[in-house]
Amino acid sequence: MMNTRTVSAVSAGNRVGRLISLAAFGAAENMAIDQAILNSVSRTGVPVLRFYQWAEPTLSLGYFQGVAARAAHGHSDSICCVRRTTGGGAIVHDRELTYSVSIPVPASSAGPRSVLYQQTHAAIAEALPDRGVHAVPFSHTGLEPRSEDKNAQFLCFQRRTAEDLIVSGYKVLGSAQRKSRTAVLQHGSLLLCTSLYAPQLPGINDLLSSQLTAEQLVPQIAENLSKSLGIDWRVDALSSREEEDAGHICRERFASSVWTERR
Amino acid sequence: MSRDESKLLYAESHEWVDLAEEDGKAVGTIGLSGFALEQLNDLVYMELPELGRELTAGEEFGEVESVKAVSPLYSPISGKVIAVHEDLPERLEELNDDPYDFGWIVKVEVSETNSVESLLDHAAYQKQCAEAG
């Protein structure tokens, strides 16, 4: 049942979307919920913004990554693993905030939605504290693009694409997408602090000398995204159909070793 | 002989199909349009279907990844997969240069129940691409 509480001031002409925040689930459940939301947005056309965390430290593999590549990163070899449906490299989900945004797109659209990467990353950058050091897209840093080899590294946060958010030379936010015929899911990870399972990757609190929590960041990011996407977010929960769908997807796909080890 | 893109049929989702007779069978050769490849921008992975798989028009038959986005490929026609361009996933960098010949993805033996009425001719497809910007 949709709650009428909105996160941002309602603007004339804005679409209404659903905001689902901020629970922690297991790895397979998290990926299944995002897929169930993508299915739901494909059916209804109503955008959904979700923020979530992980019940335990988790490594998520990019859709096309081989599970054997885990050997390249010993720090994360003891934590649980799930395969995403989105592209890119592996992510250690530990001391971080994960978001997903799913929006309808025309059936005739092709390719990645670059503008969605730009809008969400700008909204998140603007939510970070101003400590004289700014989070900027990699394409604005003036740094040389990575060689093909370096951009094939195991961890997402060791790769660089144009819209990745960079603080002091370190990537702190990376996102990836999955398209269906009439909707796109984009989810991404904002590193808050260095994880024991990825000690080479600092988070925003390490780089900005801040102590931000996910709970503090979510309202500001949602409000910024409301402005940039033209969507008024209404606080909501998963519908019973989405919960049922997520349960089925979880069992059939993300909790299955056949899925995780398919490559 | 080069394939003439103006003679092909197109799905709204940007796959092209070339319908022809090969060895006495009606065969549809399927690929991705040049417009779609431009939009996809730097494909890094492609997953192909298995030989013998029965496809229904509109069904997903493969997937591609570009700029960390995974997108499905949809079959424009129904039928059985009789050939797969196995080299293609290893040579994606060549795809943009030649989407209509080198870039074929699968060949499908067209089922008798096939209908191509929902597909676009080249002019209609060009119009769709122009409207998409």
CATH class of chain B: Mainly Beta
Total E-strand runs of chain A? 11
How far apart lie the N and C ends of chain B? 31 Å
- Unreliable stretches of chain A: none
Helical amount of chain A: 25-40%
- What is the level 1 CATH name of chain A? Alpha Beta
Tell me the strand percentage band of chain A: 25-35%
Rg of chain A computed from alpha carbons, rounded to a whole number of angstroms: 17 Å
Q: What fraction of the residues of chain B are assigned to beta strands by DSSP?
A: 35-45%
* Largest β-sheet summary of chain B: 6 strands, antiparallel
The protein's oligomeric status is heterodimer
Helix/strand-derived category of chain B reads mainly beta
- Percentage of residues in helical conformation of chain B: 10-25%
CATH superfamily of chain A, by name, is Bira Bifunctional Protein, Domain 2
Unreliable residue runs of chain B: none
> How are strands sequenced across the largest beta sheet of chain B?
1-2-3-9-8-5
> Under the CATH scheme, which architecture of chain B would be assigned?
Beta Barrel
Q: How many domains make up the 3D coordinates of chain B?
A: 1
Major β-sheet profile of chain A: 8 strands, mixed
